[in-house]
Amino acid sequence: MNTNPSRGPYHFRAPSRIFWRTVRGMLPHKTKRGQAALERLKVLDGIPPPYDKKKRMVVPAALKVVRLKPTRKVSSRLQNKLVGPQDWQMMVYSHDGLRMPQCR
């Protein structure tokens, strides 16, 4: 049997969509309450104009140094899956049809 990948499970590459999918897995998104909670969630790439002038904050309890045990190794699969801001910007340029910046 042949399959059509455009109908299959979508693997989002944008950091905002990766985070959105992670939060969706933590919610009962098939219920009305879960759907309402997901609609209230706002996930953005970058910092849009209303928020770029606000003071940025750090949550110390969420830092990798605090959360992970020092004796454990960090998975390289997780590091390769996430995209840095420069790489994500290049992907956006390539899909918009704009000139793609040169890689170093």
TrEMBL record:
Description of how the protein assembles with itself and partners: Component of the 60S ribosome. Component of the GAIT complex. Interacts with EIF4G1.
The keyword Ribosomal protein is annotated on this UniProt entry: yes
Domain of life: Eukaryota
Name of a matching Pfam family: Ribosomal_L13
Keywords: Citrullination, Ribonucleoprotein, Ribosomal protein
InterPro entries: Ribosomal_uL13, Ribosomal_uL13_CS, Ribosomal_uL13_euk/arc, Ribosomal_uL13_sf
Gene Ontology cellular component list: large ribosomal subunit
Family: Belongs to the universal ribosomal protein uL13 family.
GO terms of biological process kind: translation
Organism this protein belongs to: Rattus norvegicus
Protein name as annotated: Large ribosomal subunit protein uL13
